[in-house]
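Researcher: Let's continue the batch. This sequence belongs to Altered inheritance of mitochondria protein 19, and it's 126 residues. Same format as the previous ones, please.
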Amino acid sequence: MADKPTKEGALQSLRNWGENSVPPTLLATLITAQHARPFQPLPMVFAPVLLFSSYLNLSGYKTDAAGTTAAWSALYALLAMRRRQQFKQKFTVRGVVRGASLGLCAVNVAGCGLAYVFGKRENEEQ
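Model: Same format as before. Here are the structure tokens for Altered inheritance of mitochondria protein 19:
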């Protein structure tokens, strides 16, 4: 009898999201698109750290990369939520990019947090 593929639960899907290298890169791209012009130095600090987190993930440190991504995504979300936005500005291109980056931050915090908490460090256990 052939094995049937099992459905992944929501928590496993979030954990898989957190162990992927694409979300921090995508968030770094959105942050750069928002804050490169006019240049804003404080938010632009987040992009290199998130790209480094993606590099860590590709180097085999998935748990550590997930922790870094979760922490820096939460910090960026706190920084971005401090700015108030008028209602009509939410429907411009800049407003949609801001909303997408905040949504991605929320998913990163949940998924990468799960991957960090329940992750295993194979390199340290050997």
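Researcher: Any comment?
Model: Residues 93-117 form the longest helix (25 residues).
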